[in-house]
């Protein structure tokens, strides 16, 4: 008899799995040629550099002539190549313009939280981390999602380059590790350290759940781990998994500030209402165990906003009415530039040239910068040592 369908069993699933990994490898080969290591190709001209370090171009040239800074790198035709971010940070050090918090200020531990996938958490995590690193801050990104989008964007293949011992997993579940230092990975971005993730972290979800009964201190493992490394950073950004489980609870326990990305479509808006129900319930769980602190700020960020969709505009307006000053003023619009950069396993901040058009690129940069400038300000306001300069800048 003729069969009208093709049966699929475990062996076929295994074969599909193998084929998927082979494709990922091919993609990465193409993107990270020639030696499969991701590098930051960014260089900044002297004008931009002067702006970034808060000094004049003359001050830079004088320091170079006086030997206080190395002479600028030239190409074979003796033209200035521009400065790398590492070189710019050296200048900031020399001129005393690094924006680091004082030791007396608390490191900011920021969770880009939403219990849903596809809302832009990892996109915001990576772009905000890179924006802050461009400004000279010391940033640690902790990938808490076993899907490892952020890890991948930082040029690491979670399936091949990482061992289970390289992620949060050993610290969260095995008493052997007394600090999170083992997991800190320097990235190709100056100023950004990553704690990467891979699929094993998914196991942590139910292993933690089975341990937490009778031992609620398991909720605090992540927070305690962050305590062991936080003094080395200004900002620690947590990219949680898209579900309300043990890891998301641990993230809520560890964070001292929250940004909640929300795409303004009707469906997502109702899920945002659900988000606040889930957030309340999660915080009540923590409260029950005496583990509830306060957040230094909580802001909803309208993400993936498409101005061509009237429903988006309507709902974005509604969001402003409902959440008022709980919303960031700037929104992250839906941009082909972000999607295209993503396909190259990049962020918009590291693109060597516009992927679509110069105009789209510039627009995209403008709202990325505007969102991130707002986040940077919120962070600096939590640092008393920054208050005087914030007042001088007229933003406080
Ligand atoms: N502002 C944006 N414009 C265009 N595409 C976006 C934007 N934000 C996110 N995306 C795309 O949406 C998808 C999901 O984003 P991601 O940041 O991975 O979400 P999450 O981490 O919440 O699951 C990705 O393909 C990403 O490139
Ligand atoms: Mg993600």
From TrEMBL:
| Domain of life of the native organism | Bacteria
Q: Name one Pfam family in it.
A: AAA_31
UniProt cross-references to SUPFAM superfamilies, sorted A to Z: P-loop containing nucleoside triphosphate hydrolases
The record places domain AAA at 109-274
State the protein's name: Chromosome partitioning protein
The upper taxonomy is: Bacteria, Pseudomonadati, Pseudomonadota, Gammaproteobacteria, Methylococcales
């Amino acid at each position: 008899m003729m069969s009208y369908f093709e049966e699929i069993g475990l062996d076929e699933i295994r074969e599909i799995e193998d084929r998927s990994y082979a494709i990922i490898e091919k993609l990465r080969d193409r993107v990270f040629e020639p030696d499969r290591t991701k590098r930051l190709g960014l260089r900044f001209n002297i004008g931009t550099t002067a702006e970034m370090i808060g000094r004049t171009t003359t001050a830079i040239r004088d320091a170079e002539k006086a030997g206080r800074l190395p002479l600028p790198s030239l190409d074979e035709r003796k033209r200035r190549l521009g400065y790398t971010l590492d070189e710019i940070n050296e200048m900031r050090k020399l001129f005393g313009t690094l924006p680091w918090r004082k030791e007396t200020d608390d490191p900011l531990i920021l969770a880009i939280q939403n219990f849903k996938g596809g809302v832009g958490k990892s996109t915001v995590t990576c772009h905000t981390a890179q924006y802050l690193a461009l400004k000279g801050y010391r940033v640690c990104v902790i990938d808490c999602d076993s899907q490892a989008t952020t890890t991948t964007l930082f040029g690491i293949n979670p399936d091949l380059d990482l061992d289970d011992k390289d992620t949060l997993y050993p610290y969260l579940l095995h008493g052997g590790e007394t600090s999170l230092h083992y997991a800190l990975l320097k990235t190709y971005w100056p100023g950004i350290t990553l704690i990467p993730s891979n699929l094993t972290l998914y196991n942590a979800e139910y292993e933690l759940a089975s341990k937490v009964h009778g031992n609620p201190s398991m909720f605090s493992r992540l927070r305690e781990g962050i305590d062991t490394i936080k003094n080395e950073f200004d900002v620690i950004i947590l990219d949680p998994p898209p579900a309300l489980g043990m890891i998301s609870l641990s993230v809520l326990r560890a964070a001292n500030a929250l940004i909640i990305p929300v795409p303004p479509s009707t469906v997502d808006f109702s899920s945002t209402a659900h988000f606040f129900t889930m957030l309340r319930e999660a915080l009540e769980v923590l409260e029950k165990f005496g583990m509830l602190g306060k957040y230094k700020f909580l802001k909803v960020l309208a993400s993936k906003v498409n101005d061509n969709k009237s429903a988006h505009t309507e709902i974005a307006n509604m969001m402003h009415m409902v959440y008022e000053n709980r919303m960031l003023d700037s929104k992250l619009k839906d941009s082909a530039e972000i999607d295209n950069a993503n396909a190259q396993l990049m962020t918009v901040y590291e693109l060597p040239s516009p992927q679509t058009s110069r105009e789209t690129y510039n627009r995209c940069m403008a709202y990325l910068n505007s969102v991130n400038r707002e986040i940077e300000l919120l962070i600096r306001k939590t640092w008393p040592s920054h208050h005087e300069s914030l007042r001088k800048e007229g933003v406080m």
